[in-house]
Write a structure and sequence with these properties.
Helix content is about 25%, strand content about 35%. The chain is α/β, with parallel strands linked by helices. A hairpin with a 2-residue loop joins strand 2 and strand 3. Helix 2 packs antiparallel against helix 7 and helix 8 crosses helix 9. It starts with a helix and ends with a helix.
């Protein structure tokens, strides 16, 4: 671990030499100091009891060298992302903005889509008002991310702006001779009555570490449909935290889709800070072989008349492991809250494991809340029925497993993304079905 910390210290020292606004320097310095005090979490801590990040802590990941295209073009990138929406996108390669791979044409008035490195000079007051205001550096990986806060996406919609096309953020890690780390930092701000759809995609090759943080501000009566597709390489580590802050009547919908990575930790926290706010968290995670996927969610109802719904589904094969900790907090002032939470898991092998813990913490008395979790296997009678109709056993198991996931997939409003997931699930599960 000493070598890893020494590498971060070295990279941070080099970063200090790069001119930045004073307020950004203060954020980074305070965060790096706090990370040094906190260190990496251990399994002795309740929130990390089932997820051992020692492989991350012991590896001296280093910042990637300056970005060069080296033949990477939009035509080569599009097949890797599995679709092309023909919509605005910001592309980051090894944590650095790639303008030749990005597309920022035909933007609506009142819509800003910009890399942070540019926005620091063009939209400094907006960033200073929102950036780093909704997350806490008491979280060690947030502190680490804030220490290296240099690049990411800024998306800002002015009051009343409705943008129909999905806005893409693509973070791609190239295969390298070195073990690299990136710290993407994204800020999404919707002013009152604004509507948007944002898709974050993470993918890459090789042995690397992605440490991502996304902050979302949803203004009064705004609506954000947010997707996160995690397709990191099978040697990669991914730790991501998304924090949403919602004003009166603001609606935040999250679709968390985890398909890749060797070790993945997704945290989504939603603060329904004003009356009548609404939150929907949907999640699908698919793991096999030695993969581990950890999902941690918290929906905090702070004011009355809030509504939330949460459904996470997991499909596990091989020796894979998953964790789900879902927490709903209803504060004393949050009367008339309506909240539902469910976690459902399908185990396709004897060695797959899931640790699930849905939790309600209620301090008000006039509420309607429920939660639950299930863990099960495929119904062998249904497998037998499909086989009796001439369907092979691998295909039958693939069809039934895909049907299990469809409750999540059918909620996706972006047709190319929905088609990709259906194809991935059918192909992946049919090929690897246990016979």
């Amino acid at each position: 671990m000493r070598d890893a910390l020494k590498q971060y210290d070295s990279d941070f020292s080099r970063l200090k030499a790069i001119p930045q606004p004073l307020w950004i320097q203060k954020i980074r310095q305070a965060a790096f100091r706090r990370f040094g005090e906190l260190g990496f979490p251990t399994t002795d801590q309740e929130a990390w009891r089932f997820t051992n990040v020692e492989p991350i802590a012991l590896t001296p990941f280093q910042s990637a060298p300056p970005y060069h295209p080296n033949g990477l073009t939009p035509e080569k990138l599009d097949p890797l992302t599995c679709w092309s929406f023909g919509s605005p996108r910001l592309v980051f390669v090894d944590g650095q903005f790639a303008p030749e791979l990005s597309s920022l044409k035909e933007l609506t008035n009142g819509l800003v889509i910009s890399p942070l490195s540019t926005a620091l000079s063009t939209h400094g007051p907006l960033l200073e008002r929102h950036l780093n205001q909704y997350v806490s550096s008491e979280h060690p990986f947030v502190a680490l991310n804030s220490s290296f806060l240099t690049e990411g996406a800024l998306i800002h919609l002015s009051p009343g702006v409705h943008f129909e096309k999905p806005i893409q953020i693509i973070c791609y890690s190239k295969k390298s001779d070195h073990r690299t780390v990136t710290h993407p930092r994204h800020l999404i701000v919707l002013e009152e009555r604004a509507h948007a759809t944002v898709v974050e995609t993470y993918l890459g090759k090789g042995h690397y570490f992605t440490n991502a943080v996304t902050e979302v501000f949803s203004g009064e009566n705004s609506f954000l449909d947010h997707y996160k597709l995690q397709r990191e390489g099978r040697e990669a580590f991914h730790v991501g935290l998304l924090q949403s802050y919602q004003e009166r009547g603001g609606c935040f919908v999250s679709h968390s889709l985890s398909l890749g990575g060797l070790l993945t930790r997704n945290e989504i926290n939603a603060l329904l800070a004003r009356e009548g706010a609404e939150c929907v968290l949907d999640g699908l995670y698919v793991a096999d072989q030695q993969q581990q996927i950890d999902n941690q969610t918290c929906i905090d109802h702070a004011e009355p008349h809030g509504t939330s719904g949460e459904l996470y589904k997991g499909i596990l094969k091989g020796n894979s492991k998953a964790v789900f900790n879902g927490r709903i907090v209803v504060r004393a002032n949050a009367q008339k809250t309506r909240a539902k939470q469910s976690n459902k898991n399908l185990l396709l092998s004897d060695d797959a494991q899931i640790n699930t813990r849905p939790l309600l913490e209620i301090h008000a008395d006039d509420v309607k809340c429920n939660h639950g979790a299930t863990v099960g296997r495929l119904d062998e009678n249904q497998v037998f029925y499909l086989k009796s109709r001439g369907i092979s056993e691998p295909l039958a198991r693939g069809l039934l497993t895909t049907a299990f996931a469809n409750e999540i997939v059918d909620r996706i409003k972006i047709n190319p993304l929905k088609a990709f997931l259906n194809h991935y699930l059918m192909e992946h599960l049919e090929q690897q079905a246990d016979v």
